[in-house]
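I am writing to request your help with a piece of structural work I have in hand. Thank you for your consideration; the sequence and its tokens are set out here:
=====
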Amino acid sequence: MNGDAISVSEALALAKSALETISVRVIGEVSEATLKPGYKAVYFTLADDRAAMPCLMWRDAYERCGFELRAGMLVEAVGTFTVYAQKGRMQFQVRSMAPAGEGVLRMQVAALARKLEAEGLTSDAIKRPLPAYPRRIGVVTSPRGKAVHDVLQTLKRRYPVAEVMIAGVQVEGDGAVEAIVEGLRRVGEEPGVDVVILCRGGGSYEDLMPFNSELVARAIRACPVPVVSGIGHEPDVSIADLVADFHASTPTAAAEAAAPSIAEVRKRFDEQQRLLARALRHGVQRQRHRLEMLAQRRPFSDPHAVLSGWMQAVDDAAAALAAALPARMSRERERLDALRCALETAGTRVLEQTRSRCALIERDLVRAGARMLDEPKRRVALGAAKLDGLSPLKTLSRGYAVCYAKATGRLVRSVDDVAIGDAIAVRVQDGRMACTVDEVEKERT
């Protein structure tokens, strides 16, 4: 280096050129981040417990990082030093950057939160109201932590009438997620449980990571009863807090949210009792006054005022009926007598007409019967004449006879029917003779 003096700008340019040859990888916590729209670069500071370093990152390089820079985030940055000559300030120009340590976890949690929000699991519209007076309260937490004692003491102080059911589970480390999910399922399935408190005490961000699990978030939404979360301390907000039906800052606050204060309940009951008694008194007074007003009305004070008109109408109707009945009965009696006379006259006339018709019918029947018997008589006479001509007696009257075998009673038609010595009976016109066959002679043909 020669001894000639140089200007300030030359000196800064020399420093700039020298520093830009140094490329380093730096881990630090982000503070004072400036991400204003329209700026060409993002300005922030990386710091540790002993020093702070101003940084800048051009907008296009920052957008390629894929995460949002926030204060308190631990990042790992790669870049070179440079000098801003106008103000004589050294800066670290970042070329690439990624979350480091807890920053990676926060980035993962933020991505999960965005996913659940897109599904609507963190929406206030689906959050269930807490029961006003729970009978059974479920608690899912570590059985050995301070949180369970805080919850029990708070419930005993505020609402000792509730039954508390505790599901002791692992709340950090390997297996904590599965244990929390199983605890929520077991408590939610218990009959009579009205609300569940999911809580644990404070801890590092890594210790609280089981409550940032997607499985825990979905188990909270699947729980059949409302879930109150009280995880960590005031600054901590986990995924479980986002999806829970009510988010409390601490386990104690969660117990206070899940159960009313017995003093407040008693005070509310006393106030309701007072209002109810006053309302009942006013209601009774109104009804008594109304009853008194009704009792003063004429229908109730003097029933005859209402019934007098009807009673007089009944009397008038009775009098009219008493006067109308005899006259009506006399008219009906006269009408009945007239009908009886008309019926007797008509009956006599009908009877005479019937007798006359019967006599005519009898005469016609006699004449018709006589005419009907003429033909049968003629046919009978003709038949008798024929029978007489064909009668055996008629033949016998002409000198013929009929012989019968006495032994058999059969008609003797041929000499072959008898033998000499047979007894026979001979029938003539006026009687019968017994004979004996002495001789048989058969004629030749």
In short: The first strand starts at residue 23 and ends at 34. The mean pLDDT is 85.
